[in-house]
């Protein structure tokens, strides 16, 4: 079974090593990991053309996989990496099972409130950000569409018990353990 390994690890200086480690863990459980950097892209004439090539190749990897496991640990803000979210949405639209994990046990509304909240509770106890916009309070790990898509497809969304580095693999491995049962 081929698993597309979505997540922001591709942005890290040691991205190749992180991908290799996750692929090795997949092997331990009888799966084949497909990491976004597995494809070799020759730079195109422009940066945007190179970006489009990478996007196309990643979509091809998702098409070739049986399911997706996404690192949904908050990245550059209160929520998961936007590219990773696109990839799980694409996989869901293709009817592929999606699973996720986060190394931040804090609920989404708590992270939003900590980063952008006004610091005061609004009428009827609703949380609002500094601009007066409602903060969704559904006791979910991320935006309701992310959690909802994983849940609707029967996927697992594992949260670490305590906050860990974005590259920590214990929650990722827990998803694999559940899939191998």
TrEMBL record:
Spell out the molecular function terms from Gene Ontology.
5-hydroxymethyl-dUMP N-hydrolase activity; transferase activity
The protein's name is Nucleoside 2-deoxyribosyltransferase
Superkingdom classification of source: Bacteria
Q: Name one Pfam family in it.
A: Nuc_deoxyrib_tr
The Gene Ontology biological process terms listed for this entry are:
deoxyribonucleoside monophosphate catabolic process
The protein's UniProt keywords, in alphabetical order, are: Transferase
